[in-house]
């Protein structure tokens, strides 16, 4: 474990947050020793509010007293601060593609999850369109990062456990081995990776949480 | 896309997002071909270059498309690294720059749109929010020449295109940027002294004409 002299790394998080998981995975891959603080999102700590006054959200990484917020920004900070076990592509174009998909990959998925009828169909069409393009990024590779897990794998890693839960709750399978063979294989490879497998939240607990959130949203609409 | 050598920018004249790319290219002294898109009838090239969002701006460099304005600016900064660095070298300062550019992205355009689209109480709420946004940004700027310190940087590029919309925001919602965030108003003037900015931004009255056109189009009184 890397623990440079006088380095203090703290991660403020919440067990179910996919944004927090991104940071956890990056810290694991970089072998960075850190302290984890679980926040109660209904009763946020003074420390969290002090470190992220703009959004008051998790994750926040505090490094030697300096706070960094927004998960993707934290990933790039981690990459630039700890040089070993690089997660970013070197080539500027590949970096741009990775940064693009880091946010675009999830487009439509939440809409698909929380809507019904025609709205849901439209969201699904958008999701499928994106996944078809995303699948192409895996051609000839085990991971988006190539042989090893990289920034994009980490950024979209939540798909590996989140989508199956969405599929179960909505009773609709999106990522089938038939339609998305590469994505399907990637999900398995990513979630069973040594850096990921012990970090995943308990599936039943997570599924229950998403189920409740969905019910509340749909009920409010009707 | 043919692997043509060179740089092309697919854009829309008044888009603040497109202007970010234009300003970055100008700062770096990069020659490029500008292609104006008709957003009601998007070109085949645009649809092919940005199949996910079908939006401008798209930078096409040697046939390869880069989408999303802030990603484009970082790309431009990394490729043409010999001149006018737009990012600090310290990782923490970089993270701060990305955070505030992202803040501008999340907040300014949406809130600004609500200022001219809405009326009554909803507009008042948007106005209150815009003032908070401007004051938060002003606190970040402090007494620095630019958000980037002495050098014009990433956050400056991200935010400066919106300064040509200030007049529209002020007119629609009845407030003054100079009144609520004087340092931001002064910063805007300083930025206009830069050739890259002065040659890219349109006259605020022209932007307001465009806003009026949009209001008519969306049936807003």
TrEMBL record, chain A:
EC numbers on record: 2.5.1.18
Domain GST C-terminal per the UniProt entry, residue ranges: 91-213
InterPro entries given in the database record: Glutathione-S-Trfase_C-like, Glutathione-S-Trfase_C_sf, Glutathione_S-Trfase, Glutathione_S-Trfase_N, GST_C, GST_C_Tau, Omega/Tau-like, Thioredoxin-like_sf
Keyword Transferase: yes
GO biological process, alphabetically ordered: glutathione metabolic process
Protein's UniProt keywords contain Transferase: yes
Catalytic activity: RX + glutathione = an S-substituted glutathione + a halide anion + H(+)
One cellular component (GO) term of this entry: cytoplasm
Keywords linked to the UniProt accession: Transferase
Domain GST N-terminal: 7-86
Family: Belongs to the GST superfamily.
Name under which the protein is recorded: glutathione transferase
Originating species: Rhynchospora tenuis
Automatic annotation (TrEMBL), chain B:
Reaction(s) catalysed by this chain's protein: RX + glutathione = an S-substituted glutathione + a halide anion + H(+)
Family listed: Belongs to the GST superfamily.
Sequence ranges assigned to domain GST N-terminal in this UniProt record: 5-84
EC numbers, comma separated: 2.5.1.18
InterPro entries reported in the protein's UniProt record: Glutathione-S-Trfase_C-like, Glutathione-S-Trfase_C_sf, Glutathione_S-Trfase, Glutathione_S-Trfase_N, GST_C, GST_C_Tau, Omega/Tau-like, Thioredoxin-like_sf
UniProt function note: Conjugation of reduced glutathione to a wide number of exogenous and endogenous hydrophobic electrophiles.
Organism: Rhynchospora tenuis
One biological process term in Gene Ontology: glutathione metabolic process
EC category: transferase
Residues that span the membrane, as ranges: none
Residues covered by the GST C-terminal domain: 90-218
Molecular function terms, GO-annotated: glutathione transferase activity
Full protein name: Probable glutathione S-transferase GSTU1
Pfam families: GST_C, GST_N
Alphabetically ordered keywords of this record: Transferase
């Amino acid at each position: 474990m890397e623990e440079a002299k006088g380095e203090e790394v703290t991660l403020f998080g919440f067990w179910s947050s996919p944004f927090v998981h991104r940071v956890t995975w990056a810290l694991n891959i970089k072998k960075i020793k850190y302290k984890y603080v679980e926040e109660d999102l209904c009763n946020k700590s003074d420390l969290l509010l002090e470190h992220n006054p703009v959004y008051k959200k998790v994750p926040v990484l505090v490094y030697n007293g300096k706070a960094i917020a927004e998960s993707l920004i934290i990933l790039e900070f981690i990459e630039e601060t700890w040089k070993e076990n690089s997660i970013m592509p070197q080539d500027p174009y590949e970096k741009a593609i990775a940064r693009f998909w880091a946010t675009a990959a999830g487009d439509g998925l939440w809409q698909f999850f929380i809507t019904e009828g025609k709205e849901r169909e439209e969201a699904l069409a958008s999701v499928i369109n994106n996944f078809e393009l995303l699948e192409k990024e895996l051609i000839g590779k085990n991971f988006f990062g190539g042989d090893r897990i990289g920034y994009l794998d980490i950024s979209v890693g939540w798909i590996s456990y989140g989508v199956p839960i969405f599929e179960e709750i909505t009773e609709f399978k999106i990522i089938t081995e038939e339609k998305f063979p590469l994505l399907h294989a990637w999900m398995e490879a990513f979630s069973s990776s040594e850096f990921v497998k012990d970090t995943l939240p308990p599936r039943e607990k997570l599924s229950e949480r998403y189920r409740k959130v969905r019910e509340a949203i749909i009920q409010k609409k009707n | 896309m043919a692997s043509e050598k060179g740089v092309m920018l697919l854009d829309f004249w008044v888009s603040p997002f497109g202007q970010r790319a234009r300003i970055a290219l100008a700062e770096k002294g990069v020659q490029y071909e500008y292609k104006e898109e008709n957003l009601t009838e998007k070109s085949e090239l645009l649809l092919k270059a940005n199949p996910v969002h079908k939006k401008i701006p798209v930078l096409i460099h040697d046939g390869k498309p880069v989408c999303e304005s802030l990603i484009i600016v970082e790309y431009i900064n990394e490729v043409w690294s010999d001149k006018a660095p737009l990012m600090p070298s310290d990782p923490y300062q970089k993270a701060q720059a990305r955070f505030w550019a992202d803040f501008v992205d999340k907040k300014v355009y949406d809130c600004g749109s609500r200022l001219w689209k809405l009326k009554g109480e909803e507009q008042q709420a948007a106005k209150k929010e815009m003032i908070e946004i401007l004051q938060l940004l002003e606190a970040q700027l402090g007494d620095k020449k630019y958000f980037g310190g002495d050098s014009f940087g990433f956050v400056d590029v991200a935010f400066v295109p919106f300064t040509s919309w200030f007049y529209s925001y002020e007119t629609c919602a009845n407030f003054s940027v100079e009144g609520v965030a004087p340092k931001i108003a002064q910063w805007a003037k300083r930025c206009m002294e830069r050739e890259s900015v002065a040659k890219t931004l349109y006259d605020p009255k022209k932007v307001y004409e465009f806003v009026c056109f949009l209001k008519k189009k969306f049936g807003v009184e």
